[in-house]
Amino acid sequence: MPLFAKSDTSSQNPEVRQVEKLVAKEARDDQKALDHTIKDLSSAEKAHNKSIKAADKAQHALDKAVEKEHKAAKALNRAAHNHDASISNEQSAEKTVKIKQQHEARLEQDLEQKRRQLDELQQRKAHNDQVRESKLSQIHAQEAAAADARRASFDASAGQRPSVGGDDAAAAPGVPSRATGATTA
User: Fold this and answer.
1) Which tens digit of pLDDT belongs to each residue from 7-29?
2) Which residues pair with 176 in a beta bridge?
3) What sign does the dihedral 156-159-163-167 (CA atoms) show?
């Protein structure tokens, strides 16, 4: 006789029927409990599978985040390196500018000194040229005065002495004097 089905041999005895009802009710309650437990187990398995998938998904997201963080760290390191290099280049450029400015200032001082030297030399040359011109003028004036004096002396002596005779002072031009051997002009 099956436990869960109605028996064809239902007893007429009310106590037995009562026990049969009680047993059938217990069987139904046990079946309900078993069905409920199976349903709970199925839900738990589904939840477990979902949690596995969620954990997998979370692990994948973590892996992506770690990879992204590594890329960001690399980019940050590159940027930091580039920044450091830029700072170094800037400092080097500043040093170069200072050196070039100092060199420019030295060259400007040298140029100014050379200009002063040129001015001094030009003034000294102009003064020396003036002194030379003055000396030359003085020499020419003395020579002209001496020539004038000689001419006057010659003219005076030519007017007082006879032209015939052996006087050296009255010698013809281009003829050497007997006394000195010099040629007269």
Assistant:
1) 555 678 888 889 999 999 999 99
2) 183
3) negative
